[in-house]
Design brief:
alpha/beta; Arc Repressor Mutant, subunit A; D-Maltodextrin-Binding Protein, domain 2; 3 domains; seven-stranded mixed sheet; two-stranded antiparallel ribbon; disordered C terminus
Length: 315
């Protein structure tokens, strides 16, 4: 029985499927299935069983889950202690909504590391809203940037508002969509599949059917298609402002836009955070961080859009 196997079990149990766990970890589904199978064989219990379209824990799996979560968390503490003893750089693992990872994450952590003067290994990856609390709560990630994950009073996580913006709709500067918004062709990034994301909330408010949406690898690709006249694309206003200024895109009015949006930073309680996490959370409230979030620069290429969340789990 290994921490890899226990961590895999925790993610499958809390995210509800092998596919979701594999996506969160940035690994293949067979890798997750293999780790889970090895744990089942070692403990002599299925632990998780299929129940219709979903999964459910066996009696033994229900008893194992809180223990496994604690062991995975202690494993993260042990790894951090060894790294500190060896003089190795601290770790900062960030998960965020797709727009944040595409535009903001890299320049934000680069500025943080540069200003802190500390040796810190950083990584970032995209996570859906329902994945973020599982990843942070079980120490697979240190900080999540996205919706308010501590709105639920039963949550042990702490969320702080770090940036306010709003969502608009853009289209080609030379075309105008006809008919009601739910009949327009919508060009969206992967966050549209997340009901709790800003884009997901906008689609729901305008009652846009799935048949009217096309999902692109990232927001930059969706905006490029919109500029070519293929449809309308949601956008955070400050991220698309330069393209509007150049006349590549123009704002399209709808009954639901502009839609207020707030980015939150979420982490464990102070007593359970690493020093790097504490320093990063403090940095997020500085003028330097605000400047980066306001004008982060160009998006990343699609081939580099989704790095693994926590590759060291599988080493």
């Amino acid at each position: 029985m290994t921490l890899t196997q226990l961590g895999t079990f925790v993610l499958v149990a809390k995210l509800g499927s092998v596919k979701a766990a594999a996506t969160a970890l940035g690994v293949s589904e067979p890798a997750v299935s293999q780790a889970l199978s090895a744990l089942r064989q070692h403990l002599g219990d299925p632990l998780i069983e299929r129940a219709g379209p979903g999964m459910r824990l066996t009696a033994a799996g229900s008893r194992l889950l809180p223990v496994a979560s604690q062991m995975v968390s202690l494993g993260a503490d042990a790894a951090a202690a060894v790294r500190a003893g060896q003089g190795a750089p601290e770790q900062l693992r960030l998960v965020a909504s797709s727009a944040v990872v595409e535009f903001v994450a890299s320049p934000l952590v680069d500025t943080f590391v540069e200003q802190s003067g500390r040796k810190i290994d950083t990584s970032s990856g995209v996570a859906a809203s329902d994945e973020m609390p599982v990843l942070v709560g079980n120490r697979f990630a240190d900080v999540a940037i996205g919706p308010n994950l501590a709105a639920d009073r039963t949550s042990e996580l702490c969320s702080e508002a770090i940036f306010r913006t709003y969502l608009i709709l853009v289209a080609s500067g030379s075309t105008r969509p006809h008919g009601p918004p739910d009949q327009w062709p919508w060009l969206v990034d992967p966050s549209a599949t997340d009901p709790a994301s800003d884009c997901g909330r906008l689609l729901r408010r305008l009652h846009v059917p799935e048949s009217r949406t096309r999902v692109f690898p990232n927001q930059t690709a969706a905006w490029a298609a919109a500029a070519d006249g293929a449809g309308v694309a949601p956008a955070h206003a400050h991220l698309v402002a330069e393209r509007i200024r150049r006349g590549e895109l123009r704002v399209v009015d709808t009954p639901a836009t502009p839609l207020d949006a707030t980015w939150y930073a979420t982490a464990l309680p102070p007593e359970r955070r690493s020093t790097a996490t504490d320093a990063f959370l403090h940095f997020l409230h500085t003028a330097a961080a605000l400047r980066v979030m306001r004008k982060p620069g160009a998006g990343v290429p699609p081939s580099k859009f989704r790095p693994p969340v926590y590759v060291t789990l599988w080493s």
